[in-house]
Amino acid sequence: VGVGVGSNRSGSGRARLSDLPILAKILVVALVTALAAGSAAILGLTRLGSTADTTDWIYQDNLLPSVMLGDIETNMYEARLGLMLMAAASDDDARSAARATMEEGTAQVAKRSAEYRPHAADPAAFKAFENAWAEYVTFRDANVVQLAQAGKVAEFEVQRVKTNPMTKAAIAAVVTSSEA
User: Fold this and answer.
1) What's the whole-model pTM score?
2) Contact 148, 129 (CB under 8 A)
3) Which long-range contacts (CB under 8 A, 24 or more apart) does 140-143 make?
4) 14: phi then psi, degrees, rounded to nearest 5
5) Burial class of 160 by CB neighbour count within 10 A (0 to 12, 13 to 18, 19+)
6) How far does the chain reach from its first CA to its final CA, in angstroms?
7) Cα-based distances in Å from 164 to 21, 39, 91
8) Residues in contact with 180: Cβ distance below 8 Å, sequence separation at least 6, in sequence order
9) For 25-56, what is each residue's pLDDT tens digit?
């Protein structure tokens, strides 16, 4: 049997790519490219979901607790500043505003502590913070606030200095909690 123009020269009964018309070649290349792009897209979406899960884990287990500890420390300073401002206030309105600052800072320490507690990397250090802060607040409310409210600065300062070891212990425990 003779071999003619356009016939299958291999004799296998299959057409070779080089034997196909140009339009068919373009369609084959487009189809292969589309399959490769679709596979890459599916793989990319799968990996994107995994990345989103990892990002959420980093946020929930690392960043959020760090932010909470930072908030706790900031609120501790806010509460202490309110107390100092109360003692230094020149009138009742300023004392009331300073007391509100102290009470808001104290309330925020309690709120953020409750939020942080389940995430504590070092529960013992955080418990030490809570104990030191509770000791400070108890002493402050029983011995220092009344003097600040009355504007008795000299007596206030004598009692306030006694709170320094308590607040230092609380701050050190927060720092230890953040390093765990």
Assistant:
1) 0.68
2) no
3) 140/83
4) -110, 145
5) buried
6) 85
7) 89, 64, 26
8) 120, 121, 122, 125
9) 888 889 999 998 888 888 877 777 777 777 77
